[in-house]
Design goal:
single chain, mainly alpha, Rossmann fold, six-stranded mixed sheet, two-stranded antiparallel ribbon, 27 helices, 59% helix, elongated
Length: 645
Amino acid sequence: MLQMSEIQSKKKQGHRADIDGMRAIAVSAVVLFHVKVPFLSGGFCGVDVFFVLSGFLISRIIFRELENGAFSMVNFWERRIRRIFPALSLVVITTLLAGWFLLLPQDFRYLGQSAFAQSASASNIYFWMVSGYFDQSAEIKPLLHTWSLSVEEQFYLLFPVLLLGLRRVVFPLRVCALAVVWSLSLFWNIWSVNRYPELNFFLLPSRTWELITGALVALAPPHAPSLSGRTSNLLATIGLILVVASFIFINPSMSFPGWVALVPCVGTGLLIWVHGLQKTWVSKFLSYKPVTFLGLISYSLYLWHWPILAFANYWFPEPGATVLINCVIASFLLSAISWKWVETPFRTKKWLPSRFQMLSWGGLFMVLIAAIGMRLHLSDGVKARFSPSTLNIVESIESKSGLQGSIRQNVWTGDLKTLHQEAKDNATLILFGDSHLEATLHVFKEVARDNGINIKGLTLPGALHLGLSSSTKHQGKVDLIDYFMNSVTHLENPNVLMFFNWHSVNDHAERSLLNNIFEKLRSVKSNVWVIKSPPVYQIDLPRFAALSDYAGMEMDLSLPADEIEHQRTFLDSLFNEWTDNEIKYLELMPLFTMPNMKSKFRNDIGIFYSDGDHLSIHGAQQLKPLVHTVMKRIKAYKIEKPSTE
């Protein structure tokens, strides 16, 4: 059996101030990233630094206790519970209480769901399952940050079991076993990062290697006689550069974690290892009192800062510097209090000293949080908190026509999906678009029924923004343009109507794709209509309208005339190569602007939008006259030139 002296030096068994300093750097990067400091586009990599640190610290404890024959799974989990659960429970319960006053029903319901998942250490699984195109914005999910805690908690459940299984294995094989797990996890992470990005980001299998990086460092030789002071300083500098570079140069548009996560993880591992051998200028900096204090409160700061920022993002369309600075100050103060009066007393057993007391109260709070979360889910976020006028606005957010996805069914196989079928020989309108078209399908179906028109089509949310291609877990990539064109080319003079989020056509490649569509439609002598986008808002319009009504304050949410003109000009430039003779354009701007040319987002009946750019059920109803015009024209084409099919 390997002796402890061969695993860890006595110095490494004690408290290391430099690790507190590394925690300080990690949490600072995360917080500054969340307040949108421009030069820290990769501040989220601070979480990866935390993973490596956690893997090192718990592995060092387990290795030491296994070597001394003192390891107990129950003792280990009790320590983890004392370390994690008290402050976390306080933050979750406080967040739920704040949500009662600050969140609209659907968002309060989502908060309840995430609290329920957190109580089961499954936040990462929950946020993976709800991630998607129409998912609630990440910036307003108060408990989103608990995903990383769930990853660690799941690791704490499984990793000690693995080490217990390896306790009688000779040291080289023990290292090899961990290296194999590390390699498999890293391979899965790299392979799946583009195939299953949400799953890869949130779930333990693709994060295990980061935690085991710390474990492997804990197994590294405790001394290296050939490592000079100059070499140590050089290695520490390289480690620091890797960590800081990840904060600066990595950005959310990259495939992450993937290969790039090696940068902060290798840098962190290098710093831990070098500073376990001897001091360097980096370790001296990391050990300064102000830095280590920030490290000591880093866990509480991580817990508190995000709910505070999420509520600020929820209530302010664009939180300014003053709001964000106040959020950071409040987070720091609450963190210091939480560390002093919650974290420390529980960890040192000043409060609830016995295991039975700790586990009993911990279990009680876990059940309480789960019960509250379930209640919020079942009650739809307790709508009774709001006045009828606020709830009327909320309905525009929550109400759906029930037709979303109704013509997506055969994207991968078979013909275009039928939305409405009259007699087979009747004229047919073919719809092609994204979620903006889907939001109006109920109007097309209603008007088609009135006019005896058949409707088929293809929609996919985000299609144009994604370059008009998409993927599934099972069938790879399909070019939607080719699929759509193959579906219409066998028709004679097909009637095609397109409605996309045209404002997402931002670069030359996307414009070329659009021109390609029009060229192909012209080649089959199509009758083409294009619905131009209505005014687009950069905020969640109905949410702020509802909050304005709820708080009894006036928010001028209309777009100014110059912004309307800017959007109109953009749309005109997008289609300027295609005349009205080739394409019939349906203008929505006049329907959603006032005489003073400011945007109009509501009338006495309700809100026209379900977010910043999708029309609500009520908003889509404003398109009825235009859709009637299209249907009548299609019937006229049918009379002028009967089908030869």
